[in-house]
Design brief:
The chain is mainly α. 60% of the residues lie in helices and 5% in strands.
Length: 220
């Protein structure tokens, strides 16, 4: 999986005084990828209880996914962005939002569709609020299956390759394989121009591979 340089941004995480100096596997693993900042966080906050809670894979991955998504949005909105830039950003995050909250996914789309007719500050504030609310919603197996099937429908595969991808999705839905395995199987079929949209989705690469290897043995 790839990290999209230039639009990814470097997360800014606030941290309790002294906690950074105390080290720990989570802090050590995050340090090459984030900027630790004082005061109100731009993208997230790390407390002692978080260090304990994030030892478990599922909450840890959800936390990391939010932090890096918020950083990408902050990087966009801190620049001299135009409505078309928000359109591109939203297009790359559509499947990620859909996996979290289908209702807020559609609401975010409506904000983007009207971006060219409203004040930029109002659009940025509303999109940020919807984006953050959506990512705060828990991902479920059913929503992941919906996203994978949605992506499969975009690829226009021949019957044999489509059947192979569907078997991988069904195996994930039945609990026989982790999400990473089903997602990787689908992405292997996202070739050529038709697969470009799927390959670019942040859903398949929510945070850097190196950090995934250090902290996330498997997606929920």
């Amino acid at each position: 999986m790839t990290v999209h340089r230039g639009t990814t941004g470097r997360p800014r995480l606030a941290i309790r005084a002294g906690l950074l100096d105390e080290g720990g596997d989570l802090i050590d693993a995050l340090t090459p990828y984030v900027d630790w900042v004082p005061g109100p966080p731009a993208d997230g906050c790390l407390h002692e209880e978080d260090v304990r809670r994030l030892r478990d894979p599922a909450p840890r991955e959800a936390f990391l996914e939010r932090v890096f998504a918020h950083a990408r949005l902050r990087t966009l909105l801190e620049g001299d962005w135009l409505p078309r830039d928000l359109v591109v950003f939203h297009a790359r995050h559509k499947m990620q939002l859909l996996a979290h909250d289908p209702v807020l996914y559609r609401e975010a789309g409506r904000v983007v569709a009207a971006a060219g007719t409203r004040p930029r500050g109002a659009v940025a504030a509303e999109y940020t609020a919807v984006f953050r609310r959506a990512l705060a919603a828990p991902v479920t197996v059913g929503r992941n299956v919906n996203v994978l099937q949605h992506c499969l429908g975009m690829l226009g595969l021949d019957p044999a390759r489509r059947a192979q991808a569907l078997r991988a999705i069904d195996a994930y839905q039945a609990g026989r394989v982790p999400l990473d395995e089903a997602a990787a199987s689908l992405r292997r079929h996202a070739t050529g121009e038709a697969g470009g949209y799927v390959r670019d989705q942040t859903y398949f690469a929510p945070f850097p591979d190196g950090l995934r290897g250090d902290l996330s043995p498997g997606r929920r």
